[in-house]
Each structure stands twice: as C-alpha cells, then as structure tokens.
Amino acid sequence: MDPCLESMKTASLPDLPYAYDALEPAISEEIMKLHHQKHHQTYVTQYNKALDKLRSALSDGDHSSVVKLQSIIKFNGGGHVNHAIFWKNLAPVHEGGGKPPHDPLSSAIDAHFGSLEGLIQKMNAEGAAVQGSGWVWFGLDKELKRLVVETTANQDPLVTKGSHLVPLIGIDVWEHAYYPQYKNARAEYLKNIWSVINWKYASDVYERNNRDQTEI
Ligand SMILES: [Fe+2]
C-alpha cells in the first residue's frame, strides 16, 4: 500500500475546550453531552471506518468501491470537520463568549453587513430557512477578499461552496443541536447562541487568512 495512505492518521474526537455545562443557559449541558459524545463521536467512528475501506479499495484497485465511498466520506468526514470548528466557535460568557469582535474584523463586518447586528440578523434568517439539516456559515472568501454568509446542507463543509472560502463561524442547525432544549424553536436557538459565540476565534482565523492573502 502507498505509505502515505498507511500513515494517514485516523480522526479522533477532540476534547471540548470548556465544561459541558459552561454554555448554559444558551445551550444546555444535556445537549452538549449528547452532541459531543454521541453525534460527533459517531461521525468520527464512521469516517474512520470509511477511510479503512478506502485504503483497502485503493490497494486492491477497486475503482467501483472508491467511488461508492465518496458520499459516506463526505458526510462523516464533513461531520467531523464541521463539529471540530463548531466547538471552537463557542465559549462560555466568563471566557469572552458573546463579546463582540475588535478590528480589523469588526470594521470588515460593518463594511459588508452594515453592523454586527446586520450580520447576526442575516445569519439567523438564513439559518432558520435551511430546509432539513445543515449549517449556516460566516466565512472569508480569500480570493475576493470579502466576507460571506452561506448555508450548506447535511454535513457539507463550507469549502463545498467555494474552494477559497474559510469558515470563521459555523452554526449547526441540525435538530440534534437544539431540539432537547428548544424543541422546534430553531429561531430561538439561533437568537440565543450569539451570547456564547467566540468572536476571538473568528478574529484570529480572519486575521491569519487575510494576512496570508495580502502576502501572496
Ligand atoms: Fe451537530
């Protein structure tokens, strides 16, 4: 087998950077435990299984199986990638959760969306309108140097909407992200999650990628 394939590390469930109850009352301990320990873990497990099958299929030259595995890899690998970002997008209030971003991200948001409130309203509206399961994203288009709001279905990562898109904040709008606490009130979940959004993380990613773009 190709040594690159053999040495590819398996995915693993990242630790949460805060306690399960640290995001209350915006997101309950029950949801955080289920979401992290059950849902995210399942994506990791299924992704690793699919990667094992892919290694075998590639080794055997089984093209049919290689193609067949793409959708399950996209779904479970996307689930792993998206949730790994999502946990970092959140922070307890006493650790800066909900604290608005500083410049340069703050000025960029004002320029693109009028104000931070304008961005939040747009994300809430688009997140509420996602049919079925998916994500609403706030991202940076590195090529066009502009901020974007996008939605993706299922577990599609933001990059499926454009190879130059970098996620700054992704909000999970699958029912598993809010149903035990908010029932069918997705809009209420979207309204409350901003009180625990980690703008420092978004700012760091923005500055790193904007700087890279400038240096090219
Ligand atoms: Fe989720």
UniProtKB/TrEMBL annotation:
GO terms for biological process: floral organ abscission; reactive oxygen species biosynthetic process. Gene3D superfamilies: Fe,Mn superoxide dismutase (SOD) domain (1.10.287.990), Iron/manganese superoxide dismutase, C-terminal domain (3.55.40.20). The keyword Metal-binding applies. Its EC number is 1.15.1.1. Mn(2+) binds at H35, H83, D172, H176. Belongs to the iron/manganese superoxide dismutase family. This is Superoxide dismutase. It comes from Arabis alpina (Alpine rock-cress). The lineage of its organism: Eukaryota, Viridiplantae, Streptophyta, Embryophyta, Tracheophyta.
